[in-house]
Amino acid sequence: MTENPHDAAEPKRAERSKKAERWKKAEQPPAGPRPAPRWAQRGPSSARAYAPASAPTVCPVCRGPVEGELTCQFCGQVMVLPTGIHLSTVGLRFGGFLLENLLMICTLYIGWLIWAFLVFPQGQTPAKQLLHMRVIYIPEARAARWWRMFFREFIAKGIIGLLAAVTLLIPYFWLLWDRNRQELWDKMATTLVVTDRADRLRPSPQPPAELPGGRS
Ligand SMILES: [Zn+2]
């Protein structure tokens, strides 16, 4: 005798309806405030949100007003860090950028990479170590550690670099969506580009402007 296919499907169906029941239960909001999803538990990404709640109204270093700020806008003191720890100056940041690239070239990148992996746990890169700078993880007011440094130096910088490259390349593709296939430089110069196989638009040689002893 052949087996009834419905019988075989029966336990499966029962299980499915049990699953559906469970899903329905899960969909019902639990009593009380719903806990934030794990990815949202990290807190705001805005630096200003980490200004201390019971903040001093004046900077302990320079006495400038700092209400609601994470860092003093006058001397760069970071409110959640010990007195005397201030933001690196723009000049130092730029110097660090140049030095970092110089170190990469001088060590054929591989040396820089090994050095970087060794100093990442201290919140530093090779240039930052030489210039006594450190990357701080704001929510915990401490030095960034290996993974955050790795994310900052390779993933985040990679994404920004890619975005910049794509954005800067857009003008070169302008003719693709332009009615007159003009590039932006065509617009600036009031030009467009045609194919002229038979040279029909070649300017004819100019007649000599004025022959010596010519007509009046
Ligand atoms: Zn200050």
Question: What key attributes describe this structure?
Answer:
216 residues, RDD, binds zinc ion, membrane, 6 helices, mainly alpha, transmembrane helix, RDD domain-containing protein, cell membrane, two-stranded antiparallel sheet
Folded structure, characterized:
It is a single chain. With 216 residues, this protein is mainly alpha-helical. Among the domains are: 49-87, no CATH class; 88-165, no CATH class. It has helices at residues 5-27, 90-106, 110-119, 126-130, 146-169, 184-189; strands spanning 136-137, 142-143. Strands 1-2 form a two-stranded antiparallel ribbon. It is extended and about 95 Å long. Bound molecules: zinc ion. Residues 59, 61-62, 64, 72, 74-75, 77 line the site of zinc ion. Zinc ion binds next to loops. It comes from Streptomyces lydicamycinicus. Keywords: Cell membrane, Membrane, Transmembrane, Transmembrane helix. It is a multi-pass membrane protein. Residues 1-27 have a biased composition (Basic and acidic residues).
Secondary-structure blueprint:
Layout: H1 5-27, H2 90-106, H3 110-119, H4 126-130, E1 136-137, E2 142-143, H5 146-169, H6 184-189
Antiparallel strand pairs: 1-2
The structure holds zinc ion.
Zinc ion binds near residues 61 and 72.
Main location: membrane
Keywords: Cell membrane, Membrane, Transmembrane, Transmembrane helix
Membrane topology: Multi-pass membrane protein
| Strands, total number | 2
**How would you write the strand order of the largest sheet?**
1-2
Report the sheet with the most strands, covering strand number, pairing sense and barrel closure.
Answer: 2 strands, antiparallel
Report the β-strand fraction as a percent range: under 5%
Number of contiguous helices: 6
Q: Structural class of the secondary elements?
A: mainly alpha
**Overall shape:** extended
Bound molecules: zinc ion
* Average pLDDT for all residues: 86
Which regions contain 5 or more consecutive residues with pLDDT less than 50? none
| Terminal Cα span | 121 Å
The helix/strand order is HHHHEEHH
- Helical fraction equals 25-40%
Rg, Å, rounded? 33 Å
